[in-house]
Amino acid sequence: MRPQIRAALERSAELTRSNRLVEAVQMGEAAMNRATDDEQPEIQQWLTDHTDDFTRED
């Protein structure tokens, strides 16, 4: 996955933890929309591996 997509997903997780859900969804959706078909499985795996990034507190 490209670094800018990973960064957007990481930022989306940060926004989620800060209860900025609308912004988090917008950023995550934009990242996924920019991803190629080849990147989609890697993104899905990243999301699975990093579920706690979206739920733990800072």
Count of helical regions: 4
Average of pLDDT: 93
Low-pLDDT stretches are none
Tell me the series of helices and strands, N- to C-terminal: HHHH
Multimeric state: single chain
What is the global morphology? Answer: globular
Helix content: over 70%
**Strand element count:** 0
How would a textbook summarize the main sheet? none
Write the layout of secondary structure elements.
Layout lengths: L2 H15 L3 H14 L5 H10 L1 H5 L3
Write structural notes for this entry:
The chain is an all-alpha fold and 58 residues long. Helix content is 76%, strand content 0%. It has four helices and no strands. It has helices spanning 3-17, 21-34, 40-49, 51-55. The protein starts with a helix and ends with a helix.
Short description:
The chain is mostly helical and 58 residues long. Helix content is 76%, strand content 0%.
Q: What are the main properties of this structure?
A:
58 residues, mainly alpha, 4 helices, 0% strand
